[in-house]
Design goal:
4-stranded mixed beta sheet, 16% strand, binds zinc ion
């Protein structure tokens, strides 16, 4: 797995690897009031679900952008959605059940396709 992919994975799914994380950080960072005062609106957030361990998560708009970049890296640009509303991200393996997985296996799925 190349470094770029590892970095994306860490940013997107928050894999904790403190030493590497510190190397990536170019801080100290300061909060921006424009961001802090912007409401956390529903379309900015997409839920994720790991089919292997059953863990649910939330991915921010920024995380989604990173996932889209990953799709481009994988040559799966056609899976990039214009509007993520009504979708979630289904993971086959996630950092909770397997932090060392070689590749991020995920896809956007329509929530309406999910059976109760
Ligand atoms: Zn999992």
């Amino acid at each position: 797995m190349d470094e770029k992919e590892k970095e994306f994975k860490r940013k997107v799914l928050g894999v904790v690897d403190t030493e590497k994380e510190m190397q990536l950080m170019q801080g100290p960072f300061r909060p921006g009031s424009a961001i802090l005062t912007t409401p956390f609106s529903e379309p900015d957030v997409i839920k994720s679900f790991c089919t292997r361990c059953g863990d649910y998560g939330l991915i921010t708009a920024r995380g989604v952008a990173l996932l889209e970049m990953l799709l481009e890296m994988y040559g799966r640009e056609d899976e990039i959605l214009e509007n993520i509303d009504g979708y979630f991200i289904e993971l086959e393996i996630c950092p909770v059940c397997n932090p060392e997985n070689e590749k991020m296996l995920f896809r956007f799925r329509k929530i309406s396709e999910v059976e109760d």
